Amino acid sequence: MLERSELADNALQALHDEDYDRPFNTQSLNADTLIYTRGRPAQSLDGEWNFCVDLLDTGLRQKWFTLLPEAPEDRIEPWDYDPYMGDTVPVPSCWQMLKEKWYFFEGSSWYTRALDHTPQPGRRQVLRVGAAQYDCKVFLNGEFLGNHYGGSTPFCVELTQSLRPGQNWLMLCVNNSRTLDRVPMRNTDWFNYGGIYRETALYDLPQTFVRDLFVRLNRDAIQVSAQIDGDATSARFEIPELNISTEIPVVDGVAEARIPAKPELWSPDTPKLYDVTLRCGEDEIRDRVGFRTIARRGTDIMLNGAPIFLRGISVHEDDEALGKTTTEDDLRRRFAHAKELGCNYLRLAHYPHHERAAELADELGLMLWEEVPVYWAIDFANPATLRDADNQLRELIRRDRNRASVIIWSIGNENPDTDARLAFMRQLAETAKSEDPTRLTSAACLVNHARLKIEDRLAQHIDVIGLNEYYGWYEENFDELGEIGRNSAPDRPVVISETGADGDHTPHGPKRGLFSLAYQDEVYRKQIATLRELDYVKGMSPWILYDFRVERRQGIFQRGWNRKGLIAADKETKKPAFQVLAAYYAERAADETRARTIPEGATT
Ligand code: GCB
Q1: Smallest CA separation from ligand 1 atom 2, residue
Q2: Ligand 1 pocket, CB under 6 A
Q3: Half-sphere exposure of 116 (CA within 13 A, CB side)
Q4: Which of the listed residues 270, 346, 518, 583 has the most CB atoms within 10 Å of its CB?
Q5: Mean pLDDT across the stretch 155-180?
């Protein structure tokens, strides 16, 4: 099909053109086209979409997006894809979880659905996709509207100019190939899911609307920065509970104000949130925002001016049945387990998780580390890769910078200490500070195993040194961990961003030695005994809350799973190490409460 149609310049062009995708790799949908959508009415586009996997990229070569609905018997060419009939899949979902034959499929897939539209004069229509893994090209009624890179951040595309009255056809080409220039690259220790796996929605906006809003505490004031699209001279900002109702002038599309205020501070113990509204002309966005400060002082992490210890756990976005698709129940269960463990903090590894996670953490009083997938080997010398990583970081920050729960932006994980990597990561650290100067930056840094010392040039460019160490697992000699502790004198806080061991809880699991539950339990005990002696360690997020699916683990005890979870992949079965960590965190929490309630100088 189409090889012989007038769409190709000559009959065989589509078969010979290996640059077929170049016109569509524009990355034109990015942080600058993102729209802040919290509190806005939306028309959900979730539900059944027509679907087809496309291993050979025939769709882009043949321009499937130009196919317009035509009854099969009226067609004058044989179609290689039927966008308007045939297989459907639910959106959101990961295709691997839907059919066995799609389990290992990596490549392009096509999603098509109808969109009914009644045009209203003076309104603008915007499609928002919560996340599509990894590259997504958007077409409407045969027209290419834009392309997004990055598998875990949202993107928006304006449809206004291309929408027709009546029925429209929306087609998304989603590609999850692992390539050298992407972020992450080809090799990861998690499963490479594919698809539109977060919510899709249509927003109906007035001509002039609020594109972006950033609200935060700045000493004795609330600082508001908003970006307005269209003509506006002022916007009204309100926090009724604080008696704030302020008209902010809009100059060149920017509204900026510093409003004196003394809000009750957000903390894990008192997760206080305020209703916040910004109105501009006919447009309005609403959010619930908490106010707090987070800073570093020497080797301390200070929350609202007082030192804290981050009692954390790492977590992936992974589910036995749903893959990367996240549900409200799943998030609530995850946070309930974290609380049961005694956590006040979670590391959302290794990519931006569903935005609902930070909203819920705001409500429940949990602090978060959020991360971009600059993981292991990345093409650090490639400017296109840097542009992609930088954009993913901006999108994450713009999505979540009104969430009090988020205290750390992490810019990478276990990257080799080369000059190219340092330049790449310094740029990301600068981006994080320019997008949001109110939070801490971090990255999982390196230990010099030969010199037994924390040694990573990146450490100077971030606020908190994340450290992944697996003494007792990948590193055999446990005593070396204590030695690293003694040999290192970091000038800023260290958080143990990972440590742990696999434990196979199934009947296949061994009774002792590596992969046994007893061994995992023992590693936790030893880690805790060593780390508690290091006064610059200001938190930990052991690896990991739940077992998770991964292609690169095929040992007899792994069988396609990373089994370092404190809870098995069923998200129910707790392993004994869970209680070991819970006991330590209970002890730390009790110490903190005692320190807060006993006046300084008093003896017990
Ligand atoms: C790490 C990685 C993490 C892996 C973990 C492991 O250092 O950061 O992604 O899953 O170790 O289990 O080996």
Answers
A1: 189
A2: 189, 350, 413-414, 468, 498, 543, 562, 564
A3: 0
A4: 346
A5: 96
